[in-house]
Amino acid sequence: MRLLLFFSVLALIFVNGWTDAPNAIAGVVATGSMPYRAAAWMAGACNLAGALLFCLLGGQVARTILNLAAFSQSGKSGFCALAGCFLSVVLFAAAAWFWGIPTSESHGLMAGMLGSSLALNGESAVRWQDWQPVLAGLFLSIGLGFLLGWSGYRLAGPVLRRLGEKRLSGWQKIGAAACAAMHGGQDGQKFAVMLGLVWSITAKVPPSASRPDPIAAALCAAAMGLGTLCGGRRIIQKTAVEMVQIDKSQGAAADLASAGALLVLSFMGLPVSTTHTKTAALAGCSAARSSTSLRLPIAGQMLTAWLLTFPLCGLLAWLLTRLFLALA
């Protein structure tokens, strides 16, 4: 069971880098400002920097995640709950990747925690008041990302369009690097907490309520970076090519808008999704310039996948946890 648990958490972090992290570099690749391989290496380095920085700054998001459910049980029950949680997100993300739909492993993880908690100890294991930041982050990430993308391009678009191609590419690279760093700051904290829970159950010690371990955050960022290098083109194709038609000025505005939104929400301690925020910012920039450049059927397809993330990941986690408990 220990091997299954460590395999599942590593698979989850890797899949996050495969399907979630590429959104940070979607614009800079789609507009040709950077080739995919170079952008993926940059994203990996910035993920690492962001994960370390936000863990050292206090790890507000990590504490929010740790409060969601009690996975501190030692022995087989704790192993079964965590394994069911992790594998449910991996299966859902792999299915969504097959269709080229970007998903949020962050919200999948939280849904998996809820489903595994219910399967392990019933409703008594869930403190519903602790889920308010999750709901707030879900709506604020989409709303703030779209608003900053739309208003930012409305205000800065005329200036950006007068810049030369070389300067626009430079601004896009800065924005993409900032967005990737914020992805590391958000998801590095979340998955460092998961590694901490795995360790606490294995060592039969209570989970730490302090800031996440920077070493664990660095390992998570490295695994996410490897996932981004191994895949992600299909996600970029869906978000920055099929859903919207953007130029470099819109790409730069979307990158900076999503990075700004993620920064604000991270300091508020809200667990949010880079996928949701960046996609919303791209849609906002696209809508600000031309209503026809945003393809609503594709946007609707992704929104549907996002709405299904919570119930499907939660149900899968419940089923897998009950299965592992029966087999243990």
Question: Summary?
Answer:
The chain contains 13 helices and no strands. With 328 residues, the chain is mostly helical.
Verbal overview:
This protein is mainly alpha-helical and 328 residues long. The chain has one domain. 78% of the residues lie in helices and 0% in strands. The model has no long low-confidence stretch (mean pLDDT 81).
Descriptive tags:
mainly alpha, 78% helix, elongated
Question: What's the topology here?
Answer:
Elements: H1 2-19, H2 26-30, H3 36-56, H4 60-66, H5 76-98, H6 105-121, H7 132-162, H8 165-203, H9 214-230, H10 233-242, H11 248-267, H12 274-289, H13 296-327
Helix pairs in contact: 1-5, 1-8, 1-9, 3-8, 3-9, 4-8, 5-6, 5-13, 6-13, 7-11, 7-12, 8-9, 8-11, 11-12
Find the count of extended strands (DSSP E, 2+ residues). 0
Q: What's the pLDDT, averaged over the residues?
A: 81
- How many structural domains does the protein architecture include? 1
For the report, how would you describe the main beta sheet?
none
Number of helices: 13
As a percent range, the share of strand residues is: under 5%
- How many angstroms does the end-to-end distance come to? 8 Å
**Which structural category do the helix and sheet elements fall into?**
mainly alpha
Q: Which consecutive residue ranges, at least 5 long each, have pLDDT under 50?
A: none
The H/E string reads HHHHHHHHHHHHH
**What overall form do the CA principal axes indicate?**
elongated
Helix content: over 70%
